[in-house]
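Holo prediction — magnesium ion.
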Amino acid sequence: MSALLEVSGVTKSFEGFKAIDNLSFSVGEPELRAIIGPNGAGKTTFMDLVTGKTRPDSGSIRYGELSRDLTRMSEARIARAGIGRKFQKPTVFEDQTVAENLAMALAAPRAPFTVLTRRPPMGERTAEIADRVGLAARLDDRAAILSHGQKQWLEIGMLLAQEPRLLLVDEPAAGMTAAERERTTAMLKEAAKTRAVVVIEHDMEFVRRLDCRVTVLHEGRALAEGSLDHVCADSRVIDVYLGRPEAAGA
Ligand code: ADP
Ligand code: MG
């Protein structure tokens, strides 16, 4: 496992308040990583910085074997370089079917070489992705009639259609049923076999099931890192996070 993303000494202030404070963080390829931490810790801002939505005040964010500095790339170029992001709210095309949503994502290739390679027909590819995200039986249904959790899966499928090297997922379990949460962990674990996947999540049961390395963010810094058991035994983590209501099921 080599580092795919290397965040070094990144700081980002909003009107003098340091949302991210000299943060260093790296993730391998492949790797599944969970980020936990109290509200306002800077978790979403971290994803904004990696995807180019927000620019750091200082520090570097290097990516890939060429160690390209993402802080100098546009959001569109970062996406084309293979970084996909799932926001908290699902953003699928409600009036289109599951198959149509996936076909759109498949037809918008991020890599310039995809037109040159022979690929299976669109129908097969949409069916294959739908299967990966538990929607094989829903291909012809309009996205509007899916449950909240299924919409989240559809969006994950649309991101997987782009074959990202690094997938960032912000609080996928919120609003899901227990059964949906369980399937989501399986989906993310599977996706992380061949790429880097970084998941922000408050649901401790969910994080435990991910069974991966955990980074605890607090006041814009990495407070602790290691197995879930390791970070949960850290008294600082208990003080700032696990003893608080947002750490569901801790
Ligand atoms: P988390 O996702 O861990 O709950 P955020 O990254 O959303 O935390 O926010 C970290 C801090 O930065 C919060 O105090 C938030 O109010 C602040 N913040 C985030 N984005 C902005 C912004 N665009 N403008 C001003 N403050 C922001
Ligand atoms: Mg957030």
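READOUT: The CA atoms of residues 36 and 216 lie 5 Å apart.
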